[in-house]
Design a protein that fits this description.
The complex is a heterodimer of chains A (104) and B (321). By secondary structure, chain A is an alpha+beta fold. Chain A has three helices and five strands. Chain A has a five-stranded mixed beta sheet, covered by helices on one side. Chain B folds into two domains: 7-42 and 160-309, Rossmann fold; 67-140, Rossmann fold (3-Layer(aba) Sandwich), CATH 3.40.50. Chain B has ten helices and nine strands. Classes of the chains: A alpha+beta (104), B alpha/beta (321).
Chain lengths: 104, 321
Amino acid sequence: MAIEVRVPTILRSYTGGAKVVEGSGDTLTALIDDLDAKHSGLKGRLITSEGGLHRFVNIYVNDEDVRFLGALDAKLNDGDSITILPAVAGGALGFAAAAALLGR
Amino acid sequence: MARYESLLDACGGTPLVGLPRLSPAVAEGAPPVRLWAKLEDRNPTGSVKDRPALFMVREAEESGHLRPGDTILEPTSGNTGIALAMVAKLRGYRLVCVMPENVSAERVQLLRMYGAEIIFSPAAGGSNQAVATAKQIAAEHPDWKMLFQYGNPANARAHYETTGPELLHDLPTITHFVAGLGTTGTLMGTGRFLKEKVEGIQIVAAEPRYGELVYGLRNIDEGYVPELYDATVLDRRFSVGTRDAVLRTRQLVEVEGIFAGFSSGAILHAALAVAHEAVRDGRRADVAFVIADGGWKYLSTGAYGGTLNDAEEALEGQLWA
């Protein structure tokens, strides 16, 4: 089963620079395990030591946030498209500056 | 009501208009599925941000955080800066905006017209440079006040007390509310109000997915989730890429005559997704979504004309929502 996974720039050191990789699995957990077998270390950047999705990582299945689709248990199908992105809200620059000012 | 004591009193109360041409067609006898646009560009400075700007300033006045003649420091170049500049002018405050030097000419001109002072941070340094610049300014001026829209409860409260009740009044049959996810104030405030009043309502977020340049080498350990964000208020969250946002923004003006900014196109994209699902499942749906601002400020991007590829290229590296 082939699922296309788009990898953000910051994680391409694990995929030999590849922007898009293929994986398989019928759940997100299975897909991440499969990806980690091919691209060692990737799993550790997506999942915390407690076993949950990293707070600042967003993963989308066909443009929808997996946190609302069952998170790591989200069901996947052949032909799905997965996008991994660092969490950046709109006006990223503004909040980064504001947060720093307030010491948060 | 069409007469107000001042411009500040004219904030909110925006029209909700049906989109008969963009709403998906349903089979004869099937329950209707309708799209409704809340025209937030009809606010005093032309965006949804007038609501939180007014509420945040009023709250700061009531709590004593702001005193007459104070200076407000706002590190954003977007609609919040423009809204705050107008409110600050009318309520007697000085506004200083910190922004990168590569923002559009329209933004700078608008802010200056409203009387804001601008401190530029070098574009080359990106957000790290802006943080450094902002820290330096704050250290030099410890008496300047920040409203911090990402963590200010008055931001969400503006929508809980105004946007939510307006929607329920104008569309009691509402089944879905769709808005953009930035500070999260619109979705948190409106979403909480509607969830209390309308059983089974779905609150749907549309988040912009920018070009690669924007995310760049952003470190995953240094992400940021606004303090206002509470995932339990949302039912679904869509990530909308630049191409889809531009396509929908163009459809809004071409099909329904609504000239909006690109964030509204992204929101329409998510609204259409839930509307089409309702059609497929044979469910009735009244999907209300937010037009966050008009397209005027984005004309210079050139993304309203030419091919979608041209538009995508024009917006690459820009924070279009």
